[in-house]
């Protein structure tokens, strides 16, 4: 009795509750939907936002120490990444009025437009579906074709939007690339404050970047493509999730949606728990592949040395081991992916699919208050619309989950591009990082390496107590002093690798000065002619006037006739005709022989007429009489020569000599070529005689033994 | 069993297929399910029984690299994680290398990667390496992969039907049917998921296996020992640069691309066939004909709308290549450019290359808009519209036909509603198939692009392999003699291997002509001459790296060449000294670390093990050792290997002359005959013969004995003569010192 009463009361209460609920349902719906939107935005933000923790701070510290090369820097989506990205973004989107910003706005509006169209198509699909079925059932071909036509018409803006989206995205990527390439190439090649010549220093004086050309071309391109895509990859799915779900909640009620979200999130969390650390796998896989690649390029770089030693078998086993490491890792990743793939597909495709079906079933099997009971047609229509929305929404959700992968990939490229930018900025400021040879640690050497020299601009060249140190800390000469006065040609001799070229590099401002004082004219007053001269891309004229361009030449009022006369000095005037005029462009490196290249380099010298010229074995492939003519002409033009050569025939053109002994010592003195030659000859003769001494001793002993034997 | 089949009978045909699929999937899963605990158990056993490898074991494995097996194969010790895994490696027998050479004729220089017979020929040549036999594991994986691909399509048809059924139940508010459908949905999920996962897995492992096969083969070909030495000759004689790129990146990309393409081709094709079949069942013959007409029309529309992407992409690649080459050039020639201060000029050159590239790229984007629009529209919408039309035809026209695919008996009861529900079912499953069809069609279109990419990669890989194969073996110059003999030898840069066949005019002029030298043990030779006259070229001929252009070269096997640039192998300090031997060979030879210390003492490097932290320290020695230390390490190798002859190519230039002298003397006491290439006259005194290469471009050589021949005369006279000369020795030495001083520091 009382229990039935209580039941009655309970029922009444429930009914009241249900009534209250249905009365307030619109409000509740709003709250729930609002909560949902906030939730999506919040989780997206959390997913993408920086993760505070020890990792980022450690990365920051490691940088300062400059000894992080042995531990591969971890690339993660963290605060450092956002910092780097924002810095690069300021380069690629310089202002709100720039073309990139306008493209970006266009892109965003197209994105919104596309989602709107998709929504419209989804609802149209539902309606039209029923109409089509109805028209089929009622056999109304006209209505049917009209419906189809309508469907095709709606498709026009939808596909238009799609293709424009991809166009704008590609344009955005190429615009980013242009901005970045411009910035990078400019600071790579342009001489700004701090001496410039980054292109030389970055690969010779610094260890951080192994292959700048790869970074400038490949990495920047990839980065731009990723950056352009990441926006769409993140913005679009998030937008889609919100809009589709909103629409869905209108159709099936927000309660179902919330339930769905809870279920989806729980399973997603489960999935995340089960996901192996693929990020780590990828990083390891990249480093293993890099090490294999490194071993290979080392092999091809040193192919000759290895061939001399016949070390191929040893190298092969080393290579095979590297490769086996790669394969082993890939296998492990594959095994991980296998399980993960099964779980992921089970959850994303099948579990979520069934959730979708259940959600769609809600309006069919349960009466929603406030929603009028639909007939079969309405049900079909509602179902088809909801189904489409659900598919799109779960697709979008899946893409949100995958977008993290894109983001970490972008982080990888961002790290590389910002490494390039940072290193270039550091090199510009003279902050260099290079691994030093072990002997650099000794007290005395370390003292030299800590020092800093002075460079003073003047008319003559004068070194006072300057140590010659290679970039990796090998000290070739502890303290070098010499001078070159205008008109006094200097000859530099010594064995290989003892500091001849290093001296030129210091003169040219390429290497830092570790001590003493260097007086030298500005770098523009030098020209170096190496053994294998550099021939730029361009016309024949460009070869002679390099580094001037045709415009520079015309501005200086110099003419082709003048160039021809310069070429005739080195007996190369026939080349103009042979190669098809001054404007002929080809790969000159292949078109000219070694001797011709050297002569072109000399012609360049006579065109520019600098105060000083550095000749590094610059006549090794030129006949002797030609060599003499060129030396004489250079003297005539008032060019002071600093020559490195093993040819004694060159000695007589020089008045001073700087001789290295190869062990850190050197001699700087006047050169009396005739006398020196005579002395050299005498020395060789004496050395030959002395070599005979042991043989003579032996012979003498033998003869004496014979004489003694005879005497007996 | 009979009851089981009865129950099967009682099910509707659709659910019957589902149940069957489930059974099949269980059957497939069985092995996995049973295996998994088994392998886990095995691992557990291994973990408990076998000793856990400590860091020393890993260090040891790192040092040992490999173990020689009895059958001639080698077992690699690969440290991975904190374990050491053993991988057996069988070298490709030379006979296999030789027999496969005939599949790799060289490509002509003008060859362009296109889809043609040539592409198929190249692909089949490469595939012969990747799939050596029909019974190899790779073939097995391929068959399994194909099976799963077909399976997936079959399952998709099942899913489409189930989907239709669920919707029908939903629309007609049939709660029980809906729940049943949902149950079937989950059941079908198991085989589908398994199949999909397996397809991905097999595709990746197929790619990995192909990569391994190809890499091993290429390694064996590339790192072939004398008389091939392909790794050395591929650049100069083969004319191929960036081999590391070919071997690492391109082989991986090729394997990936091929296995992906296989999946991408097979799946949409089976999809197209099966879906068409299953659709045509509900469409009737006329519908099927129309379906094919639809395929044909869309394909021709698309073909008409497709711009010449191949040509555009080629131009893009070329421009991209030009830009990259420009940047690479700056990096390579940085020093010269820096001396000329040519940064600004290079900037202009680079920027114009970049502008050309980006203009072209942007123009491609513009062309793309219209194309993508058409493609999207045709494949996504026109196909669907055509599909709607096709589905509706039998319903609109054939009113005499029964409605839908089949009608359950209870349908008759309530007229149009049920008809709509049935049609909905038919419609939903047909539509699903149609969408899949459109998807498959799109994939086939994309597969064409993949195919183009594959043809490019195939050509690259083929180029590598054919170039490696095309290098003729070097002439065998080793013979069981005790002496080195060069008779009328011309030394010149070897010509490109493919140019050799074309014309003889491309043969480079010899650097050194008509060289005749004969060296018996103890006759030390010094080769001198100014830079670039071909001193090192002579060393290359002696080492057998360059074939002599004429004449005869004979030498014993034990010749060690120490090159100009010191080479430091990746590995421990110990590996540096024993190079080119490996640790296994060192261990086998029974030599000890004490001996190594003695050798290091001889080259004045005895402090190294202590400074660097022991024999097994692994560092990048190239950067750690200074120039002089590296050169002395090269000499240590000579002392370790004690060859009959040692060719020292300018390898002591940064070593002080006293140490240099002591090392030369030490080498002589070890009985090593020296052939020294150097510009230092002071080194002459350690040699008995002096070969001077003239620098005037004629390629002439002069050979002189160091020390004049003894004059024949009476014994008594000779004794007096000799005593006279020996008395002068002191004054000669004094004068020499004086001269040294004078040559060093000339008076001001």
UniProtKB/TrEMBL annotation, chain A:
CC annotations in GO: peroxisomal membrane
GO molecular function: ABC-type transporter activity; ATP binding; ATP hydrolysis activity; long-chain fatty acid transmembrane transporter activity
GO biological process assignments: fatty acid beta-oxidation; long-chain fatty acid import into peroxisome; peroxisome organization; very long-chain fatty acid catabolic process
Keyword entries, A-Z: ATP-binding, Membrane, Nucleotide-binding, Transmembrane, Transmembrane helix, Transport
ABC transporter domain residues: 461-695
Localization per record: Peroxisome membrane
Membrane topology note: Multi-pass membrane protein
Protein name: Adrenoleukodystrophy protein
TrEMBL record, chain B:
Entry's Gene Ontology molecular function annotations: ABC-type transporter activity; ATP binding; ATP hydrolysis activity; long-chain fatty acid transmembrane transporter activity
Annotated SUPFAM superfamilies: ABC transporter transmembrane region (SSF90123), P-loop containing nucleoside triphosphate hydrolases (SSF52540)
GO cellular component: peroxisomal membrane
Pfam families: ABC_membrane_2, ABC_tran
Domain ABC transporter: start-end pairs: 491-732
Annotated CDD domains: ABCD_peroxisomal_ALDP
GO biological process: fatty acid beta-oxidation; long-chain fatty acid import into peroxisome; peroxisome organization; very long-chain fatty acid catabolic process
Protein family per UniProt: Belongs to the ABC transporter superfamily. ABCD family. Peroxisomal fatty acyl CoA transporter (TC 3.A.1.203) subfamily.
Protein name: ABC transporter domain-containing protein
InterPro entries: AAA+_ATPase (IPR003593), ABC1_TM_dom (IPR011527), ABC1_TM_sf (IPR036640), ABC_transporter-like_ATP-bd (IPR003439), ABC_transporter-like_CS (IPR017871), ABC_transporter_sub-D (IPR050835), P-loop_NTPase (IPR027417)
Sorted UniProt keywords: ATP-binding, Membrane, Nucleotide-binding, Transmembrane, Transmembrane helix, Transport
């Amino acid at each position: 009795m009382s229990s039935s009463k209580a039941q009655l009361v309970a029922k009444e209460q429930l009914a009241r509750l249900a009534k209250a609920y249905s009365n307030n349902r619109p409000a509740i719906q709003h709250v729930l939907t609002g909560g949902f939107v906030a939730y999506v935005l919040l989780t997206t933000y959390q997913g993408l936002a920086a993760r505070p923790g020890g990792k980022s701070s450690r990365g920051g510290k490691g940088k300062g120490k400059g000894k992080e090369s042995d531990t591969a820097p971890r690339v993660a989506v963290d605060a450092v990444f956002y910092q780097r990205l924002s810095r690069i973004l300021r380069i690629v989107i310089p202002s709100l009025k720039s073309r990139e910003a306008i493209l970006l706005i266009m892109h965003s509006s197209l994105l919104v437009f596309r989602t709107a169209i998709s929504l419209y198509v989804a609802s149209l699909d539902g309606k039209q579906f029923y109409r089509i079925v109805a028209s089929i059932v009622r056999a109304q071909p006209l209505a049917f074709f009209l419906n189809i036509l309508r469907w095709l018409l709606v498709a026009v803006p939808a596909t238009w939007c799609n293709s424009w989206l991809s166009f704008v995205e590609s344009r955005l990527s190429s615009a980013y690339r242009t901005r970045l390439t411009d910035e990078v190439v400019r600071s790579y090649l342009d001489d700004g404050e701090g001496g410039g010549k980054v292109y030389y220093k970055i690969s010779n004086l610094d260890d951080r970047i192994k292959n700048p050309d790869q970074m400038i071309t490949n990495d920047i391109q990839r980065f731009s493509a990723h950056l352009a895509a990441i926006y769409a990859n993140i913005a679009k799915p998030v937008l889609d999730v919100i809009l589709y779900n909103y629409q869905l909640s209108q159709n099936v009620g927000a309660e179902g949606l919330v339930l769905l979200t809870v279920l989806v999130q729980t399973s997603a969390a489960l999935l995340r728990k089960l996901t192996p650390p693929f990020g780590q796998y990828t990083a390891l896989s990249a480093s293993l592949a890099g090490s294999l690649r490194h071993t290979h390029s080392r092999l091809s770089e040193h192919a000759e040395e290895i061939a001399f030693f016949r070390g191929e078998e040893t190298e092969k086993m080393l290579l095979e081991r590297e490769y086996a490491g790669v394969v082993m890792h890939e296998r492990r990743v594959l095994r991980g992916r296998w399980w993960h793939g099964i779980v992921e597909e089970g959850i994303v495709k099948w579990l979520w699919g069934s959730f979708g079906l259940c959600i769609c079933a809600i309006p069919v099997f349960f009466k929603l208050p406030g929603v009028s009971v639909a007939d079969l047609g309405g049900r079909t229509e509602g179902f088809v619309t909801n189904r489409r929305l659900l598919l799109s929404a779960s697709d979008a959700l899946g893409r949100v989950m995958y977008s993290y992968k894109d983001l970490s990939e972008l982080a990888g490229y961002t790290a590389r591009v910002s490494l390039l930018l940072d290193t270039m900025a550091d090199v510009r400021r003279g902050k260099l990082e290079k691994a030093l040879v072990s002997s650099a640690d000794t007290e005395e050497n370390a003292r030299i390496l800590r020092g800093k020299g002075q460079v003073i601009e003047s008319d003559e060249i004068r070194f006072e107590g300057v140590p010659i140190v290679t970039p990796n800390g090998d000290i070739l000469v502890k303290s070098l002093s010499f001078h070159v006065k205008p008109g006094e040609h200097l000859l530099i001799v010594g064995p290989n690798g003892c500091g001849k070229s290093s001296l030129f590099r210091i003169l040219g401002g390429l290497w830092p000065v570790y001590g003493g004082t260097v007086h030298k004219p500005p770098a523009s007053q030098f020209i170096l002619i190496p053994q294998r001269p550099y021939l730029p891309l361009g016309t024949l004229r460009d070869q002679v006037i390099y580094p001037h361009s045709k415009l520079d030449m015309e501005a200086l009022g110099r003419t082709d006739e003048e160039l021809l006369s310069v070429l005739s000095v080195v007996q190369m005037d026939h080349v103009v005709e042979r190669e098809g005029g001054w404007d002929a462009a080809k790969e000159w490196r292949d078109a000219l022989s070694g001797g011709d290249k050297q002569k072109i380099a000399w012609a360049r010298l006579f065109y520019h007429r600098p105060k000083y010229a550095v000749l590094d074995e610059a006549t090794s492939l030129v006949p002797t009489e030609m060599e003499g003519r060129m030396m004489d002409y250079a003297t005539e033009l008032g060019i002071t020569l600093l020559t490195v050569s093993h040819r004694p025939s060159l000695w007589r053109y020089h008045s001073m000599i700087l001789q290295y002994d190869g062990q850190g010592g050197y001699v700087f003195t006047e050169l009396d070529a005739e006398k020196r030659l005579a002395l050299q000859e005498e020395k060789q003769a004496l050395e030959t005689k002395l070599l005979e001494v042991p043989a003579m001793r032996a012979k003498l002993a033998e003869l004496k033994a014979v004489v003694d034997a005879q005497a007996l | 069993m009979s009851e089981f089949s009865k129950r099967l009978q009682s099910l509707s045909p659709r659910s019957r297929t589902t149940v069957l699929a489930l059974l099949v999937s269980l059957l497939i899963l069985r092995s996995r399910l049973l295996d998994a605990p088994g392998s886990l158990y095995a691992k557990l056993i291994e973990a408990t029984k076998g000793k856990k490898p400590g860091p020393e074991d890993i260090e040891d494995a790192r040092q040992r690299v490999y173990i020689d097996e009895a059958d001639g194969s080698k077992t690699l010790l690969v440290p991975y994680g904190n374990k050491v895994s053993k991988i057996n490696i069988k070298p490709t027998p030379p006979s296999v290398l030789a027999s496969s050479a005939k599949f790799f004729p060289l490509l002509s220089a003008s060859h362009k990667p296109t889809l043609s017979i040539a592409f198929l020929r190249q692909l089949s040549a490469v595939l012969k390496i990747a799939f050596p036999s029909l019974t190899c594991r790779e073939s097995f994986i391929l068959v399994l992969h194909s099976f799963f691909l077909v399976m997936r399509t079959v399952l998709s048809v099942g899913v489409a039907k189930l989907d239709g059924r669920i919707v029908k139940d939903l629309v007609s508010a049939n709660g029980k049917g809906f729940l049943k459908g949902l149950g079937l949905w989950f059941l079908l999920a198991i085989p589908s998921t398994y199949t999909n996962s397996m397809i991905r897995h097999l595709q990746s492992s197929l790619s990995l296996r192909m990569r391994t096969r190809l890499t091993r083969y290429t390694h064996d070909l590339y790192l072939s020992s004398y008389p091939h030495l392909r790794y050395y000759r591929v650049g100069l004689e083969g004319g191929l640069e960036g081999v590391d790129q070919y071997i690492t990146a391109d082989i991986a990309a090729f394997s990936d691309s091929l296995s992906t393409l296989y999946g991408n081709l097979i799946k949409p094709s089976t999809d197209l066939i099966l879906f068409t079949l299953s659709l045509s069942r509900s469409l009737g013959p006329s519908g099927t004909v129309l379906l094919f007409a639809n395929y044909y029309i869309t394909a021709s529309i698309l073909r008409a709308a497709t711009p010449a992407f191949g040509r555009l992409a080629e131009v893009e690649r070329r421009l991209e290549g030009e830009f990259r080459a420009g940047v690479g050039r700056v990096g390579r020639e940085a020093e010269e450019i820096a001396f000329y201060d040519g940064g600004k000029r290079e900037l202009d050159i680079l920027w114009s290359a970049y502008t050309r590239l980006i203009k072209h790229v942007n123009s491609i984007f513009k062309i793309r808009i219209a194309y993508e629009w058409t493609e999207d529209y045709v494949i996504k919408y026109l196909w669907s519209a055509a599909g709607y039309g096709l589905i509706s035809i039998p319903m609109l026209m054939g009113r005499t036909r029964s409605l839908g695919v089949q009608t359950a008996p209870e349908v008759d009861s309530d007229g149009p509603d049920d008809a709509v529900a049935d049609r909905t079912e038919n419609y939903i499953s047909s539509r699903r198939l149609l969408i899949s069809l459109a998807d498959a069609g799109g994939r086939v279109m994309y597969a064409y692009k993949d195919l183009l990419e594959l043809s490019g990669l195939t050509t690259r890989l083929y180029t590598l392999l054919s170039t490696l194969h095309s290098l003729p073996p070097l002439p065998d110059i080793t013979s069981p003699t005790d002496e080195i003999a060069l008779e009328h030898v011309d030394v010149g840069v070897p010509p490109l291997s493919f140019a050799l066949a074309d014309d003889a005019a491309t043969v480079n002029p010899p650097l050194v002509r008509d060289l005749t030298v004969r060296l018996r043990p103890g006759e030390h030779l010094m080769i001198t001459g100014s830079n670039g006259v071909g001193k090192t070229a002579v060393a290359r001929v002696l080492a057998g790296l360059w074939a002599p252009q004429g004449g005869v070269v004979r030498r014993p096997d034990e010749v060690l060449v120490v090159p100009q640039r010191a080479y430091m192998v990746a590995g421990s300090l110990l590996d540096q000294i024993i190079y080119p031997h490996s640790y296994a060979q060192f261990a086998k030879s029974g030599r000890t670390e004490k001996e190594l210390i003695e050798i290091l003492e001889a080259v004045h490097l005895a402090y190294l093990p202590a400074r660097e932290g022991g024999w097994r320290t692994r560092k990048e020695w190239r950067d750690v050792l200074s120039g002089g230390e590296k050169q002395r390490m090269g000499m240590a190798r000579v002392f370790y290997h004690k060859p009959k002859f040692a060719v020292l190519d300018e390898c002591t230039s940064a070593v002080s002359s006293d140490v240099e002298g002591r090392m030369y003397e030490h080498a002589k006491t070890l009985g090593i005959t020296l052939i020294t290439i150097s510009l230092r006259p002071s080194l002459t005194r350690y040699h008995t013969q002096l070969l001077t290469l003239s620098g005037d471009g004629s390629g002439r050589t002069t050979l002189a004995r160091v020390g004049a021949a003894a004059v024949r005369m009476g014994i008594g006279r000779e004794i007096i003569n000799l005593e006279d000369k020996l008395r002068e020795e002191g004054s000669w030495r004094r004068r020499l010192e004086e001269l040294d001083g004078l040559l060093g520091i000339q008076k001001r």
